[in-house]
Design brief:
Elements lengths: L7 H11 L13 H10 L4 E3 L1 H17 L5 H4 L7 H4 L1 H13 L16 E3 L2 E3 L2 H13 L7 H5 L6 H7 L11 H18 L4 H7 L4 H11 L6 E2 L8 E2 L2 H13 L22 H7 L3 E3 L1 H8 L9 H24 L7 H18 L15
Antiparallel strand pairs: 1-6, 2-3, 4-5
Bound molecules: the ligand Nc1nc2c(c(CN[C@H]3C=C[C@H](O)[C@@H]3O)cn2[C@@H]2O[C@H](COP(=O)(O)O)[C@@H](O)[C@H]2O)c(=O)[nH]1.
Amino acid sequence: MSDDEPDLELLALLRQHLQGKLTLNEEPETGVLEGAEYVYDNSIDVSIDMRSCKNAAAAIYAQMQQKAYSPATWASHELHPDRRAIGDEGAVAFIFVMDLLNFSFWSERSEAERFAVEYRGKRWTGYWSLVAALQRALDEGIPITDSHFWQDEEECTLDVLRHVFRSCTNEEMPLLAERLACLREAGQVLYEKYQCHAVNLVEAANGSAAGLVNLLARDFKCFRDEHRFQGRREPVRILKRAQILVADLWACFEGEDYGEFRDIDKITMFADYRVPQILRTLGCISYSPPLETAIQRKQNLAQGGSWEMQLRACSIWCVELLRREIVKKHPGTHINAILLDFFLYDTIKEMEKAGTESVPHHRTRSIWY
Ligand SMILES: Nc1nc2c(c(CN[C@H]3C=C[C@H](O)[C@@H]3O)cn2[C@@H]2O[C@H](COP(=O)(O)O)[C@@H](O)[C@H]2O)c(=O)[nH]1
């Protein structure tokens, strides 16, 4: 084509753009909500009760207002890193390794015998055992947030990791070998693509939360929490740890600096084993009799199986419906799926502490949550 001939293809693209049919710099989407709705529409073992959701939304909103729930609530937890103390890069590195390993703390043992970490004079279990062990390692001069360390097969051995996550009971931290594999893989990817530092990964997302979730899922197998569901051609994306990593950055930095994301509201609830439990407790979701029985009997649900996928995806969709109900009643609220999720998680943990849990959480041993 000579210089003075018009580029018809480009003209067609520009015309589409001017007609609003084409946005040239497509904003990224994670596809999580779309997949969650698809699973919900095809679920027979998990259902959502709209009346309970409306009632729960009102009660949750009132309590979140009363507790002044905000991103700042995150830093108020005594074990979470304070970016003013360890610096912005240090906080990003801490959150990256924390959410790289943020999975599967539940135990079959009694409260007294379950895996627990002693730190700052307290006994920490569940998610908090992870955070406590990471803080303790840093206090002991173990560079647990440094990707060079994760790759060093002499220094970072399974025995060293066993020491980092040592328990004050006889039960070892679950999936220790899998956690080491996650560290090795993440160290390798950060070395190959992000000059060994997680801050470069965050900056590569150019301020997009969905973009950062997609980078994590694309570059790190151990963040690629997506699974087949029935006959659907493309896998259903849950991306729980990728999304909670973005949410923890946003909360820790209170929406600024490394926590500034223009599309943070695209992040959904994090499909773990705790929020489905509180949603079931509130009557927002309910199970088919066989699934209800399996959960009540604390039977293991197969990872990636239909029951587990329905549970995780319908919980995501249920929290989205709660969020829409709250936004409808209170336009302009700052409440998004992240703050709703944090509140729901903290609520079920308060119930656990008070011994008032009325239904068990489901049991799936998995590196995804
Ligand atoms: N959906 C959702 N899942 C969450 C969290 C958190 C902690 N987030 C902190 C940050 C802000 C909040 O205010 C929390 O203080 C951990 N988990 C997941 O739960 C499981 C651990 O359970 P348990 O063994 O009982 O501690 C495990 O899969 C873990 O990945 C959350 O917030 N949302």
